[in-house]
Amino acid sequence: MNVYDGQRIAAMLEKHGLTQTNNVEDADIIILNTCAVRAKATDKVYSALGRIRRAKKENALLGIVGCVARESGADAFKRIPELNFVLGPQSYHKLPEILKNPDTKLLNIDMSGLEKFDELPQMTKSPLVAYIPIQEGCNHCCTYCIVPYTRGRELSRPFDDVIADTINAAKTGAIEICFLGQNVNGYKYTDENGKLYKLSDLIRETAKLPEIHRIRFTSSYPTEMSDDLIEIFGKEPKLLPFLNMPIQSGSPRILKKMNRPDDIDAYKTIVNKLKSVRGDIQISSDFIVGFPDESDEDFEQTLQIAREIKYINSYSFKYSPRPHTAAALMPNQISEQIKSVRLQRLDLQLNENQREFNMSCIGKEMVCLFEGNDKTGKHLVFRTPYMQQCIVEKPDHEITPLQKIKITDANKSCLRGEIIK
Ligand code: SAH
């Protein structure tokens, strides 16, 4: 979501005649697009601001947008007096106001809903992977999560608006569409005639576009995996055989405290249904270790589920107490030391799953999407349908963005392959 917001911010400022630079010393305006989901992310923003305010040109504008802006509000100006603007995730379309009035302090952390989507200028060129937000905010209220506070309550964008963005992306260079939302598979939009549209409808409509070859979506909430959505994995080959469906913990007792779906069997039933319609599907998850009151037995259940589902490409985090969340006030907070040991043990398991899956790809042929050059300039980097990185020798002929690649080698973190002409 932040990558998408960053692209929109860059496009908006380019319309105002600015160009991008990676050098703080050269910049006339410096924007930190921020994440507040864990304390570490927020801390990084303030340490970066400390560095930047010393390095920047004297009259360069400096500001933060996104969730840290929303969380800090006017306090941000007190902490960093050099700040010129603080704009929340739903008000960054107001950014041009600071260009018009550079001597003011611009603060806007309103939760104005979907207004920004109407006000942002349409993108004129799409990256190969187009991120298309379809809903914003979340109503689930997991007790550890700051998102309902920073991104607000759940709102789904009108079906026609999403399709218009998708068509625009397809006509201006996109090959892959990634639908975005904090609760993406909870997308529900009812039009003026009372017709209900769901994520499966968006996928079906998008798959009709000849320019689009790959479709995916993130992030999913397990119990929002409705049967229509599961079935479309079996019907629509453009939908990639890879799904991020976070379970967070393998312990029903902890899941209840997290205010997450706590029926592990129901979760496994969804995975099995997906496998039965799409035999080659792989699942990834996000995990939190060291949630308040998590015992050794609870944690063992998390290891157990990671082994059992054989998740690939997963993310794992130490629980981080966040403002405005219920879990931050819960008793029996777990020590950093125990969290670190548990994270290490979980990562061993997740890395093993990943290595095993990557090795199983050797010898297979996969259609992969071009991502860029590697650091040496001698290789090209592609993404497989499972979002694995695949590195190939740079060929002496032109390539197209989609290439059939034969996987020749693998390790824990990436694949190697050869382009099949
Ligand atoms: N559904 C959300 C999740 C974003 S946060 C979205 O798409 O915006 C991504 C992951 O961060 C979560 O799945 C969870 O595993 C982790 N996370 C969220 N809050 C956390 C916290 N307080 N401490 C540690 N990890 C957290």
Draw up the topology in text.
Blueprint: H1 2-15, E1 29-34, H2 39-55, E2 61-66, H3 67-72, H4 75-79, E3 85-87, H5 96-100, E4 106-108, H6 115-119, E5 129-133, E6 135-136, H7 147-150, E7 155-156, H8 159-171, E8 176-180, E9 188-190, E10 196-198, H9 199-207, E11 214-218, H10 227-235, E12 242-244, H11 252-257, H12 264-277, E13 282-284, E14 286-289, H13 296-309, E15 315-318, H14 336-360, E16 365-373, E17 379-383, E18 389-393, E19 402-410, E20 414-419
Parallel strand pairs: 1-2, 2-3, 3-4, 5-8, 8-11, 12-13, 14-15, 18-20
Antiparallel strand pairs: 6-7, 9-10, 16-17, 16-19, 17-18, 19-20
Helix pairs in contact: 10-12, 13-14
The protein binds S-adenosyl-L-homocysteine.
Index terms:
OB fold (Dihydrolipoamide Acetyltransferase, E2P); 14 helices; binds S-adenosyl-L-homocysteine; 35% helix; Rossmann fold; four-stranded parallel β-sheet; alpha/beta; Transcription Regulator spoIIAA; five-stranded mixed barrel; 421 residues
